[in-house]
Amino acid sequence: MSDKSNLYGLTLEELENLMADLGYKKYSGRQIFQWMYQKNIFDFQDMTNLSKKLRAEMELNYSISLPKVLEVKVSRDQTVKYLFELEDGNLIEAVKIPDHPRLTLCMSSQVGCPLGCKFCKTAQIGFKRNLEVGEILSQLAHVQKTLEPEERISNLVFMGMGEPFLNYDNVKTAVEIIMSVLAFGIGHSKITISTAGHVPGIYRMTDDGLKVRLAVSLNSADPETRRRLMPITRKYSLDELKKSLTYHTSQSRRRVTFEYLLISGITDTINAAKKLVKFVDGIPCKINLINYNPSPGLPSEFRPSTENDINRFRDYLYPRTPAVTIRASKGIDIKAACGQLAAEYQ
User: Fold this and answer.
1) Which residues are 93's β-sheet partners?
2) What is the distance between the alpha carbons of residues 14 and 306, in angstroms, rounded to a whole number?
3) Among 17, 32, 63, where does a domain finish?
4) 71 assigned to active site
5) Helix ranges, the chain (H)
6) At 1, is the pLDDT very low, low, confident or very high (cuts 50, 70, 90)?
């Protein structure tokens, strides 16, 4: 571990203040900010618009350090999964998902996850720690470096490992850097934060005016079933969740995306569809239906829905709900699909 202070993850204001503290003009902090986040340059000697004196001082006392890419797996459908090793040896994953013309990066916000959702491999890791701002940003930075000159990550989804709202401050700071035109320059409408139903986080995001899209991993609108599948429901009930989402949509003027996992005989019945229709009533939304992706170690009674049951479920929802999409899972063969991230190194 280096004794030098790592600058990666600092905000524009923090870098400007650092330069002022060191006796340099604040705009030098802006220049470093651009080099790191906009140009993906991490060697101070390559930051040619900085004075030689400043470059030498920065190299002596500071570093720009990112986690190491440990493994890259490519799916038959061209989905790519990246395994990162953090400085303390912990592992996280991110997934690049091609869907022309979009190129989406699914990012992690925690090492593991404390929520214990029964259908998710990440839950089996348990919770280790929150990711730092730089560790969140580095997922995007590393993937950007692998792209062809004409390619660009167009969309970001915080749907990887962890519950983003349990790492709210670091996720918010990372998102603000990502949106900056001096950094990655990805617009707020192209960024989605997905929550398992952390009600305080929904209120906080809304009141902070964080103008990104909100997705909710709902998976059941039946209280008993959702408590069994998603223990967070014992702390934040479906009624409390609906109240927070009604507030969010009324204040933000943006619709919510509901991610709904179809598990055969459990969440894909017509009775389940009726309860879902009732739950989303009055909430501007769209619903993404996702078939369950089996993984070793998950409950043996969980099975994917059949095509007929998926179509029947969708046909009941629409036109009773505003918008319904069957979302095809990608990267299943490399365990990169929804619920399959486990940060395992072979």
Assistant:
1) 83
2) 52
3) 63
4) no
5) 12-21, 27-37, 52-61, 121-125, 133-146, 168-179, 199-208, 223-229, 238-252, 270-280, 307-317
6) low
DSSP state of 31: H
Helix (H, G, I), strand (E, B) or coil at 61: helix
Q: Whole-angstrom Cα distance, residue 271 to residue 13?
A: 52
Instruction: Confirm whether 299 is domain-assigned.
Output: yes
The enclosing domain of 59 has a CATH number of: 1.10.150.530
135 as an active site residue: the answer is no
Which of 113, 120, 285, 338 is flagged as catalytic?
338
Strand bridging mode 68-74 / 80-85: antiparallel
Confidence of residue 341 (pLDDT cuts 50, 70, 90): confident
Output the CA angle 134-329-120, nearest 5 degrees: 65
Question: Residue type at 148?
Answer: E
Provide the pLDDT confidence category of residue 338 given band limits of 50, 70 and 90. Answer: confident
- Residue of 16, 93, 132, 259 with catalytic role: 93
Q: Is residue 344 part of a domain?
A: no
Total domains in the fold of the chain? 2
- The predicted pLDDT at position 346 comes to 44
Q: Which domain holds residue 199?
A: 68-334
Give the CATH number of the domain where residue 293 resides: 3.20.20.70
Per residue in 311-331, pLDDT (tens digit) is: 999 999 999 999 999 998 899
**pLDDT, tens digit (0-9, with 9 covering 90-100), for 233-260:** 999 999 999 999 999 999 999 999 999 9
The verdict on residue 278 lying in a domain is: yes
- CA atoms of 198 and 205, how far apart (whole Å): 11
Mean pLDDT over the full length of the chain: 96
The dihedral sign for the CA sequence 277, 278, 282, 284: negative
Whether 288 and 105 have beta carbons less than 8 Å apart is answered as no
Straight-line distance from the first to the last Cα atom of the chain, in angstroms, rounded to the nearest whole number: 25
